[in-house]
């Protein structure tokens, strides 16, 4: 890691901040995934890791490699785009499976398929 | 020759980002993009019709800001989960747009936002079932989905 010592101070601080924020969000998401009580609450927690969790690490990587190689490195942005665009596919699959199971089992507090109580505030 | 010009441009851009910006990769990337667009055309997908496409950067900025704000809120909820109860709730929202692209973008936005989850879309009555982790003000959420995002999406995709 000889490049790391050549990094100017401003870049080192920016990389450290983004890396720590991203990692902290992913960790908090994992803790939430473990601790929240119901399925529908737990499903929110990993989104921390797939939004600004991956975003922070991505920005840190872009700054680090752009500064050390002397030319802009932008391909990390593809990771961010693909993670963001593909998350809803698995997410929706899990959510709808859970909804279906809860409706079949008639679990309390889960909305029915055909609802008459829609508030229309157009 | 180019059935999907925007898709082709983005494919070339992606190829160059992955392989480096050289003339050789520009040529290979362009060939890959052209063939990929022909393959795409043979699937005969529904074509998006862009209206006010210049509003896309505004949408991107709004989403990045809202997602960052929601990250902070959800992190606070998780870290304080011992001391303070949050208020998880289901929310059914009546949408106006039937456009598939608007709905897809709205689903991605609401799923990426940690505080909200897009659970189920019903095409019969055009409603969407959301789950919100900490529902403090129902009217505020309805306003955010309908006025902040749906209006903008209806201007972008016509």
UniProtKB/TrEMBL annotation, chain A:
Top-level division of the source organism's lineage: Bacteria
One MF term in the entry's GO annotations: sodium:proton antiporter activity
Keywords: Membrane, Transmembrane, Transmembrane helix
Leader sequence segment: none
One Pfam family recorded for the sequence: PhaG_MnhG_YufB
Keyword field contains Metal-binding: no
InterPro entries found in the cross-reference section: PhaG_MnhG_YufB
Annotated TM spans: 12-34, 46-65, 77-99
Alphabetical list of PANTHER family matching this protein: ANTIPORTER SUBUNIT MNHG2-RELATED
Name of this chain's protein: Multicomponent K+:H+ antiporter subunit G
Organism: Rhizobium soli
Higher taxonomy: Bacteria, Pseudomonadati, Pseudomonadota, Alphaproteobacteria, Hyphomicrobiales
UniProtKB/TrEMBL annotation, chain B:
InterPro entries from the UniProt entry: Cation_antiport_E
Record-annotated membrane-spanning stretches: 6-39
Gene Ontology annotations for the cellular component aspect, listed alphabetically: plasma membrane
Pfam family, any one: MNHE
Family statement: Belongs to the CPA3 antiporters (TC 2.A.63) subunit E family.
Membrane topology qualifier: Multi-pass membrane protein
Main location: membrane
Keyword Repeat: no
Subcellular location: Cell membrane
Keywords carried by this UniProt record: Cell membrane, Membrane, Transmembrane, Transmembrane helix
Source superkingdom: Bacteria
Protein name (record): Multicomponent K+:H+ antiporter subunit E
Keyword Signal: no
Alphabetized GO MF terms: monoatomic cation transmembrane transporter activity
